[in-house]
Amino acid sequence: MGKHALVTIITPTYNHERYLTDCIESVLAQTYPDWEMIILNDGSTDRTAEIAASYRDKDNRIRLVNQENVGIFRLSETYNKGVALSNGSYLAILEGDDCWVPEKLALQVEALQNSPAAVLCWSMARCVNADKSTVYYTAPDLQVADARFYNNDPVGSIMNIFLYRNCIPALTILLRKDVLQKIGGFKQVYHLPLVDLPTLYELAGIGSFIFIPELLGDWRNYATQITKTYPAEMTEGFYKMALSFLTTNPVASALQMDDREIDRYYTKRMVIAYARSGRYKLIRKEYSSARRDYLKAIFGYGLVEPVWKLRAATGYFLSLFHLDVEGLARLMGKRSYTEK
User: Fold this and answer.
1) Which structural domain, as residue segments, surrounds residue 243?
2) Are residues 246 and 198 part of one domain?
3) Do the beta carbons of residue 241 and residue 277 sit within 8 Å?
4) Which DSSP helix (H) or strand (E) runs through 80?
5) Domain end (from 192, 220, 248)
6) Is 338 inside a domain boundary?
7) Rounded to the nearest 5 degrees, what angle is found at the Cα of 234, between the Cα atoms of 233 and 237?
8) 211 — phi, psi (to 5°)?
9) For position 3, what pLDDT does the model report?
10) What is the pLDDT of residues 78-108, one digit of tens each?
């Protein structure tokens, strides 16, 4: 491996007392030692700050920044505060409910040092339930046709994927800080509760990526996490991002796509998003709100996605009687979001 370079790990966290120990321990276990971890506690009301402080007091590479809660719709402010406080040449993302394998930083730092033209490195991760006892799936899929775009070579080509979905698990990203600073830091647009995809949109036009086809971390997926509260709003935001890119970015002309293709895709995705939103709300016992989302899935967006419309109709029926949608999911052999 080449000369060591300092990596700054940016860890936004909110009410992650159940997971933060696992997160921090996965950083302490890294085989690459030259890192600093900036934990940005967004006004947690549980023991998150206490847990973070206990690790800070034991390892001077860990820093804790407590702030008043600004929420997920101002997430870019929190992330960019971490950037402003960072000393590293590279930036890694690790939110407080995710974790890494020990070799993560070592592999990615070496990859970036060996490829100076690349702006970031990313890899595979597992989507798991809250206690990591169940693996839902592994991302990205290596067998899909558009896997040829994973290295963003030629520059801009990964937009063939980003216009439809984000293939990059955020916790696997390692990027050059100077490149991020050139685009003005982490981006957040269209009232989206996230910064990764808007930022990746901009980085995709600057340089190539490095994809390492190895599992380097786990991210948790559970019904009460904040992004599960806004699946429909997120889909609408992704749609607006895609249309804006197609109409304003010169790279778009090389992708051979048009607005109608994007419209067809996102019309289908909106049905799925509202059906899923109803399900998450039903898990949280938000029955009336769940019914509103199910009705949008059933009667909105034409005749597309009939299977998802049927699922929404089933969820609507269950919501009327406050029945357990996850019990039905388990009975049918489907993924349940209330598993431990």
Assistant:
1) 226-331
2) no
3) no
4) helix 75-85
5) 220
6) no
7) 90
8) -105, 125
9) 55
10) 999 999 999 999 999 999 999 999 999 999 9
